[in-house]
TrEMBL record, chain A:
The keyword Nucleus applies. It comes from the Eukaryota. This is Centromere protein N-like. The gene is LOC120056495. It is found in: Chromosome, Centromere; Nucleus. Belongs to the CENP-N/CHL4 family. GO terms for biological process: CENP-A containing chromatin assembly; chromosome segregation. It comes from Salvelinus namaycush.
TrEMBL record, chain B:
The keyword Nucleus applies. The keyword Manganese does not apply. InterPro entries: Centromere_Cenp-M (IPR020987), P-loop_NTPase (IPR027417). This is Centromere protein M. PANTHER family: CENTROMERE PROTEIN M (PTHR34436:SF1). The gene is pane1. Its main location: nucleus. It comes from the Eukaryota. Keywords: Centromere, Chromosome, Nucleus. GO terms for cellular component: chromosome, centromeric region; nucleus. It holds the Pfam family CENP-M. It is found in: Chromosome, Centromere; Nucleus.
Length: 334, 184
């Protein structure tokens, strides 16, 4: 194994937390049972790394095998790094009938045509998602494995999630994806976050949604707290209405864990008390950012407790309705 | 304007009713539960967010003996909502049947002017001002205990004491130098 391969393996082991190492190695097909037993998991990590390096040297493992381990780790823990959502547009006739082998061949062929030195690994996960790992090189250098790009695509859906791609390689990746999935183009869905499961659930609407009804009080199926007959709530109907509207806008139960919503304002300044800024022709540029550990949960609580006025303003409800968290607001609308 | 009137209904035997008005609707539930626990024979609590109370419940609502406005000093909206709700009370209530309860008075991030304005409001209406701590159970129990004491007098369950008499003793006063807060 070369020097660079050693370095890649070392970096990878350093990245994986100690508790997960044993499970990860168990899933990696290249270490047999006896090898696993021979590794002592009570030693400090650097000692373990040395043993592992020696073991891999003995077996003649290459970069390809190490990248498999990295992929296993990332698939198990996808919620790191910044994921961006993209949407594919203009489906051609055979787009819904693409299947895995066809997609794989097409993607590999397209990308290797565009850049000759690129390392691609495609894997299908149990929940119907295709994971692609791409390490980029250029026409003269070998692929650089320390900064790979990961792409997640669910076949037959027009959504793609990408992390770790630089602006130099983005158009190439886009082109390869568009051709392989038989769509016309790909656009930015303006949705990004650290938590892949959250942005996937938000974009593909996989959380519990509440639909508007003409006959309210559908939320009473939950266990009602036994009411004390001595305590009467006067404005209970208002509270129920607010809760209903909050759940309609944001969903019920556990919500996808978004961290940020950014609104970029390009509207004119409109406050009559400030004479210097009002009445200027060019728009007043500002950025409003909402940040929280669980943004949708906080917004839903704001609405149901009455802090935000109901009906829910479309600026906030578009986070869930349109599945975005970056908005540019101009005077004509969002 | 639908005013809440103090003496338009007959009182019940051995009952006293307290109305807790709070914009955020959080402290009132805890307080109501504690008040009901502490005094088993007596009361009925009514919880509201702001006045005026909805007309549909007019018939079934019992006679309210004490109205408590819960103001969280951390929020300006809380104070404003309480001020607007005051307009819907019949003046008969202000003779010992209204009380102000304030939370977070010791909080450093609260602007001191807000407490001053609540005190001025309470003093102008001749009502008592209580400070409560809503995060711990002891704080809630203490506040419930004090409210029960005032409630019993306001409902006429304590012999020889009326709400008006008690309020002259407990009403909030604002010393004249409160606007100059100097610590010399």
């Amino acid at each position: 194994m070369g020097d660079s391969t050693n370095r890649i393996l070392q970096r990878l082991i350093r990245r994986i937390p100690y508790q997960m190492l044993q499970t990860m190695f168990g899933k990696w097909a290249h270490l047999s049972r006896e090898d696993l037993h021979s590794l002592d998991f009570t030693q400090p990590k650097w000692v373990l790394t040395e043993h592992l390096l020696a073991l891999c040297e003995e077996k003649g493992l290459t970069v390809k095998h190490i990248t498999e381990l990295e992929m296993i780790y990332i698939i198990e823990n996808p919620n790191q790094g910044m994921w961006h959502g993209f949407q594919l547009l203009d489906a051609e006739e055979d787009a819904p009938s693409i299947e895995l082998t066809q997609f794989k061949e097409q993607f590999k062929a397209n990308l290797t045509e565009l850049i000759s030195h690129v390392s691609i690994k495609i894997k299908k996960h149990t929940d119907e998602a295709i994971w692609i790992r791409v390490a980029w090189g250029d026409n003269f250098t070998k692929p650089y494995h320390l900064k790979p790009t990961y792409v997640v695509h669910h076949l037959q859906t027009p959504y793609v999630f990408v992390t770790g791609v630089t602006s130099k390689h983005k158009p190439l990746l886009n082109q390869a994806l568009v051709l392989a999935t038989r769509y016309g183009s790909m656009k930015d869905a303006h949705l990004s976050g650290r938590n892949l499961t959250a942005i996937r659930d938000l974009l593909m609407r996989q959380y519990q949604q509440v639909f508007p009804t003409k006959h309210p009080k559908p939320l009473q199926e939950k266990n009602p707290v036994p009411r004390n007959p001595n305590i009467e709530k006067e404005q209970a109907e208002n509270t129920e209405n607010r809760l209903q509207m909050a759940c309609e806008a944001f969903g019920d139960g556990t919500l996808p864990q978004m961290q940020k919503a950014v609104y970029k304002l390009e509207t004119k300044f409109r406050d009559n008390s400030n004479k210097t800024l009002t009445g200027r022709e060019e728009p007043f540029r500002g950025v409003v950012e909402f940040a929280s550990t669980n943004l949708l949960e906080s917004l839903r609580h704001c609405v149901s407790s009455g802090m935000a006025s109901t009906p829910v303003t479309p600026l906030l409800s578009s986070i869930t309705q349109k599945g975005r968290n970056y908005f540019v607001i101009t005077d004509k609308g969002v | 304007m639908s005013l809440l009137k103090p003496f338009s209904k007959l009182p019940g035997l051995n009952t006293a009713n307290i109305l807790l008005v709070e914009n955020e609707e959080q402290f009132q539930q805890k307080l109501a539960d504690t008040v009901v626990l502490q005094e088993k024979t007596v009361n009925v609590n009514v919880l509201a967010r702001s006045l005026p109370l909805p007309m549909e419940n007019e018939e079934s609502r019992p006679r309210i003996d004490l109205v408590v406005f819960i103001i969280h000093l951390t929020s300006e909206l809380s104070f404003q909502s309480a001020e607007t709700s005051l307009k819907y009370l019949d003046p008969g209530y202000f003779q010992g049947k209204v009380c102000f309860l304030v939370t977070n008075a010791r909080n450093v991030s609260v602007p001191p002017e807000r407490l001053v304005s609540v005190r001025k409001l309470a003093a102008s209406l001749h009502c008592p001002l209580l400070c409560a701590e809503d995060q711990t159970t002891e704080g809630v129990t203490t506040a419930a205990h004090r409210l029960l004491a005032i409630l019993k007098v306001a409902a006429g369950l304590v012999p020889m004491a009326t709400g008006l008499y008690l309020s002259t003793l407990t009403r909030c006063t604002v010393p004249s130098d409160i606007d100059q807060q100097n610590f010399e």
